[in-house]
């Protein structure tokens, strides 16, 4: 088994079935997310990135496919907010307890509302960061929704 992280420990405590996937990226012309998907041999739609934004100055988590961009307007609408903007990376690391590039939506230090792109429910399993660069966790999106009380929304551009 891969290195233990707070995210993996939370999954184990919850009794959720999951598979870890570790990888090393080589330099590529692909974007980071596309390179990870190619390295893992996974459809880009199943690999999700965890982003932290602020809606009306309150932090929220947005989980979207790596092949897409987060629509801040859609996130603001989903959060019933007037405006959304990406959070400062230093604050994000403090709030989540993870390093940018390895932020897991699971077991973050500060509880925040979580919004998941609705495309996730179209797959039996999806991949999200396990809390370290180079480590992904594959799990049923229903388990992720249940654990994090995710709100589903069309978030991707």
Explained architecture:
With 157 residues, the protein is of the alpha/beta class. The protein has one domain (6-153): YbaK protein. 26% of the residues lie in helices and 27% in strands. The chain has helices at residues 6-14, 32-40, 72-78, 89-96, 141-148; strands at residues 18-22, 48-55, 58-65, 84-86, 114-117, 126-132, 135-139, 151-153. The strands form 2 sheets. Strands 4-2-3-5-8 form a 5-stranded mixed β-sheet. A 3-stranded antiparallel β-sheet has the order 1-7-6.
N-to-C CA distance: 35 Å
Number of domains: 1
Largest sheet: 5 strands, mixed
CATH homologous superfamily placement: YbaK/aminoacyl-tRNA synthetase-associated domain
Strand order of the largest sheet: 4-2-3-5-8
Give the overall form.
globular
Order of helices and strands: HEHEEHEHEEEHE
CATH class type = Alpha Beta
Share of helical residues: 25-40%
- The CATH architecture designation is Alpha-Beta Complex
